[in-house]
Design a protein that fits this description.
This protein is of the alpha+beta class. The chain has 15 helices and 23 strands. It folds into 3 domains: 240 residues, BirA Bifunctional Protein, domain 2, CATH 3.30.930.10; 54 residues, no CATH class; 86 residues, Rossmann fold (3-Layer(aba) Sandwich). The structure holds zinc ion (ZN).
Length: 447
Amino acid sequence: MSKLEDIVSLCKRRGFIFPGSDIYGGMAGTWDFGPLGVILKRNIMDQWWKFFVENHDNVYGIDAAILMNPRTWIASGHTATFSDPLIECKECKSRFRADKIADGINESVTTEEFLATHTKCPVCGKENWGPIRKFNMMFSTHVGAVLPDDDKDLTEKSTAYLRPETAQGIFTNYKNVVDTFYPNLPFGLAQQGKAFRNEISPRDFILRDRECSQMEIEFFVHPDTWEENFEQIRKANHDFLENVMNLPKDKVHELEVPAKDRAHYSKRTIDYMFDYPNGQEELMGLAYRTDFDLKNIERESGKSMEYRDKNTGESFVPHVIEPSIGVERLFLAVLSAAYTEDEIDGNKRIVLKLPENLAPYKYCVSPLLKNKPELVEKAQKVYQILRKKYNNVTWDDSGNIGKRYRKQDEIGTPKCIVIDFDTLENDTVTVRDRDTTDQVRINISDL
Ligand SMILES: [Zn+2]
């Protein structure tokens, strides 16, 4: 079994992630976060918010609506170009993303180029292809009272999209924030939220799903200082990934995207790659987007996006540097880095070595024996004290102590506290360390 399968299995067994709509046979490309997954996910998102937003005077938060005026996506180019090359097998009618089933081609592949690769259908094995068609990945819906038999005009006018990225909710609020907070440059606007992409073939667990959460910041900078600003953000990203998310330095790689692969408006892009169990994949991106987005909005809205410098009086459209990260990608990176199999006294065990700032629970409290009321009562007291102090504390009195340890190891609880008969005598408890399994006796008041 590969390590990714081990992680998927652990996620389901321990309530981190379940397949979406599992009870009805599932829904491709969707996943549900379970009781522990939702805590880990929120911890990751909260740490990001603290690191990039709360710790800086010049970074503001925003929480824009998922449904946006469709002109947003005309201005951004998504309506015209946010598409994947779709190819259909004429024999079995299976549809694929062309660049994912043939080697040596990319998203802009033409029908001729694809046919030249002599790729066989992964389903039926035949080689009989239709032409490549552009498949727009935005999910469309209808806003307002529209009926299925309404005329085409009305239907078209009511069409809206689930946002394919959170960034445009930031750009469209740039002017609102400038006009209400008068920030100096550089300043950042940050947003966390859902984004939707109708992937042709979702796969790789939560790496390529149809509904995901993003964390993005647009930093508005003076065009003359972009290189310096870019370097600062580049360093901050490493600091966050390696020191706050605890990802091993040697598994995070910078990929300088060459000019021919960059979006036409971008003058520099770095992809942060991570060594996932199934290979290296993109974890986050850092892109210098110039004034592309604000100029697009100017054109489509007819409103000026110029910024006036309070000190120099200079007026200009700011340039933008964008760090962007997918929460699920980061979630999987954190799990992959933490997932460990080792051996304790000849017994194999699975342990999630999550850092304390991310672990769903900091402490697990339990009585040594659950059929001794005096132990249970004392343990409950300790549990309530710690819960008040730390919030993220759990209680476990199931099975024997060895089983409890194994469960807490698998969900990444750093410390297990056990109340035994000595506790009743001297108010000390045993504290077991998840990673070393060493146990020490500590006064309850010192916890
Ligand atoms: Zn086929």
